[in-house]
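Dear H.,

Thanks for agreeing to be a second pair of eyes. The structure we're designing against is below in token form, covering all 135 positions.
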């Protein structure tokens, strides 16, 4: 038995993985639906965080919907540096919906759906998790 003064609350994962890092998470068997309402533009740090979150959730097998509005309508536009990331998410079965009512909406990469506020409402209503991302 370990004396009380040497006990820790954190489990030692180094014996499991051979390093000081915890093991890599495995894909979840509990599939969730996640909606990200994104209005931050292509150069905003919160956009990078939202895209990473969407990518991680998709890789873990969760159903991901991104509704892009305001400045975010430019993310999936042909010629935007972030359009490649949007395309990768769409190819990984994420739904990317762009607000077609916004005048800044330009032609989008293949797989992006042009929608409206009713699409956002349905996504929010049907999701287990909803995240709003603003600048």
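And this is the sequence the design step returned. I haven't edited it by hand at all.
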């Amino acid at each position: 038995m370990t004396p009380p003064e040497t006990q820790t609350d954190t489990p030692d994962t180094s014996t499991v993985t051979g390093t000081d890092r915890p093991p890599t998470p495995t894909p979840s068997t509990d599939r969730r639906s996640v909606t990200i309402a994104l209005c931050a533009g292509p150069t905003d740090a919160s956009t990078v965080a939202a895209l990473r979150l969407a990518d991680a959730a998709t890789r873990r097998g969760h159903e991901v919907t991104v509704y892009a509005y305001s400045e975010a309508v430019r993310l999936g536009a042909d010629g935007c540096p972030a359009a490649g990331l949007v395309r990768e998410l769409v190819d990984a079965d994420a739904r990317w919906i762009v607000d077609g009512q916004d005048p800044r909406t330009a032609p989008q990469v293949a797989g992006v759906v042009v929608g409206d506020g009713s699409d956002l409402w349905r996504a929010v209503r049907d999701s287990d998790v909803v995240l709003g991302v603003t600048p």
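Two observations from my side: The chain has one domain: 32-133. DSSP finds four helices and five strands in the chain.

Warmly,
E.
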